[in-house]
From TrEMBL:
Membrane topology reported for the UniProt record: Multi-pass membrane protein
Subcellular location per the Swiss-Prot or TrEMBL entry: Membrane
Organism annotation: Brevibacterium pityocampae
Family: Belongs to the peptidase M50B family.
Protein name as catalogued: Peptidase M50 domain-containing protein
Keyword Hydrolase: yes
Keyword terms of this UniProt record: Hydrolase, Membrane, Metal-binding, Metalloprotease, Protease, Transmembrane, Transmembrane helix, Zinc
Highest rank taxon of the organism: Bacteria
Cofactor(s) annotated in UniProt: Zn(2+)
Annotated ranges, domain Peptidase M50: 66-143, 155-210
Amino acid sequence: MSDTTSARRAPGASRGLHLGRVLGAPVLLAWSWFLAAVVITVLFRPWLASVRPDLGWGTWLVAFAYAVLLFGSVFLHELAHAVAGRASGQRVAAIELNVWGGLTRFEPRIEEDSVRAATTSFVISIVGPVVNLVLAGIGWGAVQFTEVWSVPWLLLMALTFANLALGVINLLPGIPLDGGWALQALLWRATRSQYRGTIVASWVGRLIAVAFVAWSLLTPLLAGRRPDLVTVLWMSAIAIMLWVSAGDAATHAKRARRMETYDLSRVIQPAIAATGDADVEQTLAFADRALTGSGPGAARPVPLIVVLDETGLPFGLLDRHAASQVIAAPGPPAQVRDFVRPFGAWIGVPRDITAPHLLESLTHRPKAEFCLVMDGSTLTGVIDLQEFFDELLAD
């Protein structure tokens, strides 16, 4: 499974054990993996005990070894996604192993050529399941040279069929499965609409979720048997994950579509820059003259004043309310630096930047709180990024 990092979250911010780095990205073992390892061990051990009762308590060790080796296959699956993405020029943010298998995160990148982007997405999506099918083939070949019912034979057989199942299931054409993202890429390429491809593939994913539950119930009933409770619960858990993930993908697609046509001028507040030693009364008067029109209905929003430090870099906003009160009172002239409200991290962008490119820029400054809009070397506006996100991501 592959994904991109959120613009509001630092790449690789998942919680878990850091196992190292591959392709410059951290490999994370989420805490939920241990739950999955326990479940797999508990479910696999009874079968081992039935075919190799002589192993005794050793069946627990063999079952746990199977869980570890299975997640080794999952890691190779995710590594294939990462290698394919890196080969296409994308930066890998993190590879994560978790209770549901794994996830490869890529840093967002704006690709102007939609056909090329769709093709890249298809290749990245499809290579993971292909690796599982190749591993299944290798495992089947190795089984032929292994003593029947030996521990290596049992592990190889289990891994062979597990990889076959992982490959086939992940090729099902519904989001969030890899086959779903491949279908999305094909529809994206055919229709030139990433949004339409995501919506269709997410609905197919919901149908697959329902099919998992239906299969666990109807298959035994049609055979005249009662459904197995463990199988029904396991399939239901997978179905819930698929349904929720498909819904999230559809929601994100709607937001991405909104982002493509989002008018940043809606959240850009006009602004000018002022040095800290400037006279505050003169600065306020200049700002109002520069950005306030004349005549009925011509007034523009009250401009913000960004205060520069001694090195010429922005470090805060002028508190107009406090400055106005001091100006009205008798006393010596005050300076701009006396009324500064320091702001946090900021990022500078050109005046003609689009919303998608702004989000891409923010992946490199995930803690930025303000965006300073520049026309060449001249400050023209400020974007409060919290306000931007609240409006852009509102349902």
